[in-house]
Write a structure and sequence with these properties.
Chain lengths: 527, 171
């Protein structure tokens, strides 16, 4: 049982066939090329045979050197011809065992067995080619072990999980957030976009290609401009100013209209509902999407906003989870909402917003100073160059830009802060408007303190937290604070094992919440 | 076990605990690695030297000599500094890995978040009897944390310790 075993011997044949397949194309190439003159067919056959022999030998040695051990507590695989790799996967971490049979191995009755764990970066344990019976046996074995060990802890949770879906399918669930047309128009105004001009540029190119009008002919435009210019010049200063204003006004109208159209296409009928199965989001005018996210899969929350919309009190909120939303790493659950609307969604996901009594830690002032100097440096260099080589006055432009950049960086310090409470960690970053991240301390996987040369000299660090499905970095934390932060977060993490994260997690949260918000624990229990 | 856990005095300005030094052979392995990396540059400089000699623009040995001097300096200096910058600290429920000369990274992985564990040995590492211990976690950042330069028996022992902890936790 716990002796090292080898995979099915036929794997050697499969490996050899694989190498032969790779040798066919070079062999054919030699066969049809001029190399070797009349004897080229022999050369081609020779290359094929050598490739087959080497491939078989490597495949055989590789097979001899690959062993797996079904141990008491883990599955181990040792492999490697020149280098040695040994991987140990504890049963507690195996989420599922998948059997895959490709056509060729299937002929031999073989399967490749994959032990899936929650590891980030797609790293898993796979055994190439076991007999089907052995694969089934392994799957059975892993399932039994897992059931034995987790039966006690997860019985209640899985029982509840399997009972609820039918009920939830029948009931619609509570609507947490929805956007009507009015809100969409409002949202669209802030999605101001001049992308339409890029589209127009593309269209012009197209016109250029299919018609005789030469868009890039400078003379054509110059003559048109001169015509218009003489017309404009004849109008007098007030009319000219009015023209400029009208032009800008038109630009703004176009930008807003395209923003509204885009928003309507993407977010028409946006509804977020909370049911027993989790969160469900529906949106879209032409392509309607319907996404379901189980609540316990939500690893963290990101609340962002924009430069202008922040001043009007609008925020957007996303869930971080292992699943991906199109190309984004997190799911937008409320793209345009007030904090009052966001708060219930945060609570429904089992999180809470930072309270009033929270002890916020500011970012290191040295870090913001360094960043301001660093980003202004290029403009200062430009200013010096301009002062030397360009006519007087030109140097003022980069100087002005440098001052602006420094000002923006110093203003950004306002948003750089983080805080810890009993169950969660909060961090805010951003330049002109804040982006907040909330994560459960328990659901973090590692803590790293990273320092570049400058940061070491000036005594601050970036704290990188291992969050499943997303990133959580807190820049510019004074080194002492970073150490304290790490110590207390690791203390929380180490206390609870990964395999217990999902099921019994609700209990401690329940308790933590019931002190101040008793309504929420009822909500959680109902899920 | 050929490596006794010798506790070196901690670098006071950087650490909040005593770091355990890696196996001394790790420095040798790094040195060999640096030497292998320097070889192509040396060969290239010799070729360049050969071309230059025909044109007689520079006194002989200027290019190859400079490259050789830099290579020797790197081979002597960098591996021992990198060795000195690395260290680890293993406690009851977590592993701390410190690395980096210029950019310094100080990572803590609690055993309760380890998904699976690798012990890897490349050809060079096998020659020096050392191994790399890699812990895989579910987080996107630091999805695998590697600790190279452990004595091979120690790496295996650490794997057993961590695995035992995972089991104890989930029971």
């Amino acid at each position: 049982m716990s002796e090292p075993q080898r995979t099915a011997p036929v794997s050697v044949v499969l490996g050899a066939i694989g190498s032969l397949r790779q040798a066919i194309i070079p062999a054919l190439a030699i066969g049809f090329s001029g190399i070797g003159g009349s004897g080229r067919v022999l050369v081609a056959i020779g290359v094929g045979i050598v490739a087959a022999v080497i491939g078989t030998a490597i495949s055989y040695i590789g097979w001899r050197r690959l062993t797996y051990t079904i141990g008491e507590t883990d599955i181990r695989v040792e492999s490697g011809i020149l280098s040695r790799a040994a991987r140990s996967v504890p049963y507690e971490r195996i989420q599922d065992v998948s059997l895959e049979a490709k056509p060729l191995p299937r002929l031999f009755g073989l399967v490749s067995v994959k032990f899936e764990t929650g590891a980030g970066g797609g790293e898993d344990l796979a055994l190439q080619y076991l007999t089907k019976a052995e694969g089934e046996r392994l799957r059975q074995l892993v399932r039994e072990r897992r059931e034995d060990e987790t039966a006690a802890t997860t019985a209640a949770a899985t029982g509840a999980d399997s009972a609820t879906p039918e009920r939830s399918d029948a009931s619609e669930g509570e609507v947490l957030y929805a956007m009507g047309p009015g809100r969409l128009v409002n949202f669209g105004l802030f999605e101001f976009s001049l992308a339409v001009f890029a589209v127009l540029g593309g269209l012009l190119q197209y016109v250029d290609n299919v018609s005789d009008i030469d868009i890039w002919n400078v003379d054509l435009w110059r003559s048109w401009l001169e015509e218009q210019g003489s017309f404009v010049a004849s109008l007098g200063p007030y009319a000219q100013a009015a023209g400029v204003v009208a032009g800008l006004f038109g630009l703004v109208i176009i930008g807003m209209a395209s923003g509204i159209i885009r928003t309507f296409l993407r977010d028409w009928g946006f509804t977020l509902t909370r049911s027993a199965r989790g969160f469900r989001r529906q949106r879209g005018l032409l392509t309607r999407t319907d996404v379901v996210m189980p609540a316990h899969r939500v690893q963290g929350i990101v609340i962002g906003t924009g430069l202008v919309r922040y001043r009007f009190g609008w925020h957007g909120m996303s869930f971080v989870s292992l699943a991906q939303d199109d190309k984004n790493e997190s799911h937008v659950v409320a793209p345009f909402a007030t904090m009052d609307e966001i708060a219930p969604i945060v609570r429904a996901a089992g999180f809470h917003l930072p309270g009033d009594g929270l002890n916020w830690q500011r970012a290191s002032k040295r870090q913001i100073t360094d960043e301001a100097i660093g980003s202004a440096l290029i403009f200062v260099v430009g200013a010096v160059a301009a002062a030397i080589y360009a006519p007087f006055g030109v140097a003022l432009i980069p100087v002005g830009l440098a001052v602006m950049v420094v000002g923006a960086n110093l203003y950004a310090w306002k948003f750089r802060r983080h805080a810890l409470d009993d169950t969660q960690i909060f961090a805010t970053t951003g330049m002109m408007s804040p982006t907040s991240r909330i994560a459960t301390r328990l659901k973090l996987h590692s803590v790293e303190i990273a320092q570049g040369p400058l940061a070491r000299w000036r005594g601050y660090a970036t704290v990188n937290l291992g969050l499943a499905g997303g990133t959580f970095a807190i820049p510019g934390v004074p080194l002492e604070d970073a150490r304290k932060l790490r110590a207390s977060v690791i203390e929380t993490i180490a206390a609870t094992d990964y395999s217990r994260l999902d099921a019994p997690l609700e209990e401690p949260i329940d308790q933590a919440f019931s002190d101040d918000q008793s309504g929420l624990s009822v909500n959680l229990r109902a899920t | 076990m050929d490596q006794s856990p010798a506790f070196a005095p901690a670098d006071q300005s950087l650490d909040d605990g005593d770091l355990t030094k890696l196996h001394p052979n790790y420095a040798h392995a790094l040195r060999v690695q640096t030497a292998l990396m320097a070889t192509p540059f040396l060969v290239a400089s010799l070729v360049l030297e050969g071309i230059m000699r025909e044109k007689a623009l520079l006194p002989p040995g200027v290019i190859a000599g400079t490259v050789l001097l830099i290579a020797i300096a790197l081979i002597i200096r960098i591996p021992s500094r990198r060795y000195g910058a690395r260290g680890y600290q293993i406690s009851a429920d977590r592993l701390r890995v410190v690395r980096g000369l210029l950019f310094r990274y100080d990572t803590v992985v609690p055993f309760s978040r380890v998904q699976h564990i690798d012990v890897n040995q490349g050809p060079l590492e096998r020659f020096f009897g050392i191994a790399t211990l890699t812990l895989h976690t579910a987080g996107n950042h630091n999805s695998s944390v590697a600790l190279p330069g452990l004595g091979e028996p120690l790496a295996r022992e650490m794997r057993e310790t961590i695995r035992a902890h995972i089991r104890r936790d989930s029971l």
